[in-house]
Amino acid sequence: MQNEPLAFRMRPRTIDEVIGQETVIGPSTALYKMIKNGHIPSMLLYGEPGIGKTSIAYAIAGTSELPFIALNATTSGKKDVEEVVNEARLTGKVLLFLDEIHRFNKLQQDALLPHVESGSIVLIGATTENPFHDVNPAIRSRCGEIKQLKRLTEAHVVKLIESALNDKERGLGRQSINISPEQIERLAVGSIGDARKALTMLESVVFASDEAGGIVRIEDDIIEQMMKRIGVFGDKKGSHFYNLLSALQKSVRGSDVDAAMYYLAHLLENGDLTAVTRRLLVMAYEDVGLAAPHVGAHVLAACQAADRLGLPEARIPLANAVAEMCLSPKSNSAYRAVDAASAAIHAGKTGDIPPHLRDGHYAGAKELGHVGYRYPHDTPVGSFGGWVDQDYLPEKVRGTAFYEPVLAGDEKKLAGIYEKLKTFRKK
What we know:
Elements: H1 6-9, H2 22-25, H3 30-36, E1 43-46, H4 53-63, E2 68-72, H5 78-91, E3 94-99, H6 106-118, E4 121-127, H7 131-134, H8 137-142, E5 145-148, H9 154-166, E6 176-178, H10 181-191, H11 195-208, E7 210-212, E8 215-217, H12 220-230, H13 239-253, H14 257-270, H15 273-288, H16 294-309, H17 315-327, H18 333-346, E9 380-381, E10 385-386, H19 411-426
Parallel strand pairs: 1-4, 1-5, 2-3, 3-4, 6-8
Antiparallel strand pairs: 7-8, 9-10
Helix pairs in contact: 5-6, 9-10, 9-11, 10-11, 11-12, 13-14, 13-15, 14-17, 15-16, 15-17, 16-17
């Protein structure tokens, strides 16, 4: 057993040994009480890597008396599922843990779903992806419990590390290890709530440290080296990555520079510069928009500079762009207007393009009635430029207003022009 990774050895054996996730499977929860009373419901466990999905499944299996089978949907085939079904027929009921359940294919589902529905197979599925986006509805409908797990707190990770250091059977308790509370805290902070990474770093640090007089002495620089080697910032394309992008945009929209910088830094640690610059460009036009039209050009220039510089220097122009967007006036009026127009089209509010707006640059256009267009530039209106009172919308949609200006920043002036032109049309 000592040849297995520390993170594997330290998995909880029963639900009473689970550290963290008190709101999901703590002693006061309904799920805990059901399991203790012998009832295991089918469920989906959703959350980032390393926060306890697999551990909880094994802890439930250790608490129950059901035959337990673990599969991974990325490597299992129909034959594996058939073996689970056969086991259920022989024993009457089996507990199946299916990791990466969002990769479940149709053949596996067809073989397994009726037995999950009948209760002969209790299914615990684990996924890093949002189950409402990536797990088949047929699976979701048969899982009465969908539990979203959260990152462990630093206190939870400290407790986990201390448990591993003291456990003589499964952990490192048979070794004399000189590690300070501050160093344990550093490992906990560096793991960012990921139990697996915390224990992997701890094990790596111990093996990389010098031993003298039978005592392993942990040095700070070894901890820092191992944290850099293992990495602590999660997946690049999973749900957590998109949650970070979402949090960045919402922080900018809410004008919170500090929060926006935090999420930008977290995203850049993942290293996917393309995804970050793409989202920043969207934000410049979606959230700042007409209130500060120059910001779009500034953000584009910053993104182009970031692409040319590459990381780590790319963080500098991107930080400028994020700060400017946070502190700029905000307007989403333009994109709301085009969405409103699109909704009207889908609702059937369409009509023929007015004849005077149709293409008239060919012989025969007059015969088709494509005449009557008046060139606005020929009719100056004060300092505005040119304007004439003529219809542009199809007759069926005429009079519909899609654009509602926001009285913020530069858009105040645009809103005034918009309202003035409306009074001209009324005349």
